[in-house]
Design goal:
Layout lengths: L1 H6 L14 H15 L12 E5 L2 E4 L5 E3 L13 H30 L1
Antiparallel strand pairs: 1-2, 2-3
The protein binds zinc ion.
The site of zinc ion has 9 residues, from loops.
């Protein structure tokens, strides 16, 4: 029976010794394990993201700093840089069209 009790000790929560009760410590262990793990970087795709502060994560490989969950990085943290660029291009094209229209109006006024 003693051996079973020994197996149940949970790494990071060992520091509390026999205090605070097993259920609470088990929950804390799960959270601490999540928050201390390394995650995949959404920018450079390397497993180098570590928790910097509550909800703030930073990549040790490329230095990216971003927000995630308080104790973990959601799996679908995808940065869509390509889409943003496309949107910018679309906006520029729209501006050009509007400029042309404005010019057309001005020309017609002059005539
Ligand atoms: Zn990175």
């Amino acid at each position: 029976m003693l051996k079973i009790a020994e197996k149940k000790t949970l790494g990071s929560v060992k520091r509390f010794g026999p205090r605070y009760g097993g259920t609470v410590k088990e929950k804390l262990y799960k959270v601490e394990k999540q928050s201390r793990a390394t995650y995949k970087c959404p920018y450079c795709h390397k497993e180098k993201v570590r928790k910097q502060s509550l909800g703030i994560w930073s990549c040790k490989k490329c230095g990216a700093k971003f927000t995630g969950k308080a104790y973990s990085v959601p799996k679908k943290t995808v940065i869509k840089e390509e889409n943003i660029e496309e949107e910018i291009v679309e906006v520029k094209e729209k501006d050009k069209k509007e400029e042309k229209e404005e010019k057309g109006v001005k020309y017609s006024e002059k005539k």
